[in-house]
Structures are given as structure tokens and as C-alpha cells.
Amino acid sequence: DQQVKQNSPSLSVQEGRISILNCDYTNSMFDYFLWYKKYPAEGPTFLISISSIKDKNEDGRFTVFLNKSAKHLSLHIVPSQPGDSAVYFCAALVVISSGSARQLTFGSGTQLTVLP
Amino acid sequence: EAQVTQNPRYLITVTGKKLTVTCSQNMNHEYMSWYRQDPGLGLRQIYYSMNVEVTDKGDVPEGYKVSRKEKRNFPLILESPSPNQTSLYFCASRRNVDYGYTFGSGTRLTVV
Question: Among B10, B58, B60, B90, which one is most buried in terms of CB atoms within 10 A?
């Protein structure tokens, strides 16, 4: 049973418009969420994260929103650029009391294509 | 440069022939992990290690072994590979108190 779900395998948007990537989770114990970006023939790279005590985190063109009651998070990219074309993975973990983290659980990924 | 290095990048092997994929990190990270990526399934954890001589199973450990004799190295061993282990494998590391991983570039394994 997948605890982190990305229901859209692919998304296409026009350059300059907003890209919205969605992620749902089932485990209410998750308290930290991350987004990774992956280009072909490379490993995933960290993009942005959010703690469960927040509902929004912004870093330049990237904003992550968290709706805990709906167990849903989304990544907004504004404006989208062709170089943003990649697979985006949502991931979640449980922070244990000692300050360290349990293993990361990943979603299945969404292929974003930004059209010029 | 801080990095996680995996070798080889590509490997084609036959069923039953033992192989090892190496992973090394130069960041003094305590935590290391192996993931496999399959279409529609995302990244699934195989094994992880929170420090030297401490390893534990992830979500899909069957058919794999690991060892952590030194902090920097975390090899993945397939004693008797089978075609269902054909996949893209990633090694990753982080500090125990951090949340985000640094990933290697991946190893594309094909078992025929």
C-alpha cells in the first residue's frame, strides 16, 4: 500500500505559466515533506521541503503548500521554464523524538514537461 | 566536491551470477541507503544503514545484501540476481539529523 501517492504520472504546461504538482499521503505520522527533481541519467536532487507545522514554504519560483487535514501537498512552479522539465518526486518522513528521521517514503513521480 | 559515487553506471549480467554495486560518499554522513526505481512505483527503499555496522531492511530487501564496514562505503550485493531485479538503483546518504538525501547518479542493472 503506497503511503505517498502522486496520481498524475505526467503534466505538460506552457513556458511562463504555473505548474502545479500534487501529492497525497495516507500516514498521519508523517511530519516532514520534501520534493526532489530528477533529470534523465542523474540522481534525484533536493528541491524544497516543508515541516508539518507550516502550511507554506517558498523558495524563489518554487512554493510548497501543505494541507494537513486533507493529507495533501502541492508544488507550484511560477513561472515555469523549459529547464524545469524533469520528474518530480514527493517524499515524506517521520521525525523521531531524538531529532533524527525515519526513512524517506517516496511517491511514484510526475513527469513535468514545460513547452517553449 | 561533496558527492555520492556509484559504480558501475550500467551493468548487464546473467541470472545467478553474483554482483556488487559499490557506493561511496565523501561527506562523513552517518546514514546511507539503497533505493530502486521502477516505472509507476517510484523509489523504494531496499536497505539502509544508520552507522557503521548498523544495517536494516527497507521496504523491498528480498534478494539483496548490504554491508557497512566503513562509514564512507555501502555496497549492495546481489548473491543470485534474477530478472525481476532489473531496475535503476540509487545510493543516497545524509546526516542522521538531516532530512534530505544526497543521491548518487544511479546504476542501471539488467539481468537476463
Answer: B90
In this structure, are residues B89 and B9 in contact, taking their beta carbons and an 8 Å threshold? no
Residues from chain B that touch A99, judged by Cβ atoms under 8 A, are: 97
CA distance B93 to A100: 14
- Give B-chain residues touching A44 at CB under 8 angstroms: 43, 90, 101, 103
- Answer yes or no: do A43 and B100 touch at CB < 8 A: no
Rg (CA), chain A: 14
Least CB–CB distance from B99: residue in A43, A49, A106: A49
Q: Is B92 on the interface with A (CB under 8 A)?
A: yes
Q: Is A66 left (phi over 0), alpha (psi -120 to 50) or beta?
A: beta
Dump pLDDT digits (tens) for A25-53.
999 989 899 999 999 989 999 999 999 99
pLDDT tens column, A94-115: 877 665 667 789 999 999 999 9
Residue A25's DSSP bridge partners are A4
∠ at Cα A69 (B41, A106), nearest 5°?
20
Question: Residue A12's CB: how many other CB atoms inside 10 A?
Answer: 11
